[in-house]
Amino acid sequence: MPVDSPSLAWSLCAVYGPVLEDLKLEFLDELRVVQAAADSPVLICGDFNQIYQAADKNNDRLDYRSMRRFRRLLDDCRLDELYLRGRLYTWSSERRRPTLEHLDRAFASIEWVELYPRHHLRCLSSDCSDHAPLLLQLCTDVWPKPGFRFEAFWVRMNGFEDTVRMALESVALEADACRLLDQKFRTMAKALQSWSMQCKNLG
To answer: Which residues make Cβ contacts (< 8 Å) with residue 129, sequence separation at least 6?
Structure first.
């Protein structure tokens, strides 16, 4: 599926690899065709249902022949794996002594990685599934937000104490003391910023 923007064009291939071993070779051959047909940078991601290195599994029950085939595909197609932050495995058998594997992943052509050098791939909560969903951000440049700055002269101005009191009393959060205090401070900071702007406009 082509993905376009005003200045960039690249292809996205979402996959769900077969579980049955006799279908995995055909699946890898299909990926070769997809990569060969791509006339733009390509991203291939999803549940591959196979691994290519021993570190992708938490035990030594490994299919080395399948791993070699997968690794050969990645080498032949010149695909780089996007680094997954914060988690080693993305699937669990959810048993008492679970098998854990890194089945969900993303691979990209060199050209795609050059387009998005500041990409960021991480796992989200897996409470509802035996797989952990992945979130890929293409650019992680963060615009700085102006922080709250308390001005000492505010305490001498009319309306300061009323603003603080109303802000603190407006928070009725049922939570532990630390979270409640955090919410009160956040609410008070917003109220003081708004009050300060009103004072400037009146002045």
So the answer is: none
Q: How far apart are CA 38 and CA 108, in angstroms?
A: 12
Q: H-type helices in the chain, by residue range?
A: 21-37, 64-76, 110-115, 160-169, 177-202
Measured distance CA(52)–CA(28) in Å, rounded: 12
Report whether pLDDT(8) > 80. Answer: no
Q: Any idea where the domains of the chain sit in the sequence?
A: 2-137, 152-202
CATH number for the domain formed by residue range(s) 2-137: 3.60.10.10
Report pTM.
Answer: 0.65
CB 189 within 8 A of CB 183: no
74 Cβ neighbours under 8 A, 6+ residues apart: 52, 81, 107
Task: Identify the CA nearest to 89 among candidates 119, 64, 120, 58.
Answer: 58
